[in-house]
Amino acid sequence: MGMFVISKRANGDFKFVFTSRKGKIIFTSIGCKHKSDCELMIAGIKDNITLFAFTKNTTASGKHFFRLSKGGLVLATSRKYSTELSIKKGITEIMKYVPLSETLDFSETDAIFAPAEDVFAEATE
């Protein structure tokens, strides 16, 4: 099953990614000023994935990617895929797992783990 992960960019904007069940990023959202905007977009995608358009593109170097949009507004851009078959598999995975996915919020803290000094301080004493 895939997962949505909300985080904060260096400029203070919020974003989310959708990851595969193996942890690989499938697509990354546009930047949002408020976390609630990310939450609303995730809810909309989860509840109505069939209403969204997947526009396939190719880079100058021949890599394939897609943009996820609704009503002409691009909401997310996928990772780069090496083949047309792999991009089709990515879209199939989205259609299958997005409605069942969970959401993790890592936007409230900059560090998930304690500073190394705190963890290893006891070992040096």
Automatic annotation (TrEMBL):
Record Gene3D superfamilies: 2.30.29.80
Domain DUF1508 as annotated: residue spans: 61-103
SUPFAM superfamilies in the cross-refs: YegP-like
InterPro entries (UniProt xref): DUF1508, YegP-like_sf
Annotated TM spans: none
Pfam families: DUF1508 (PF07411)
Protein name (database record): DUF1508 domain-containing protein
Source organism (scientific name): Flavobacterium subsaxonicum WB 4.1-42 = DSM 21790
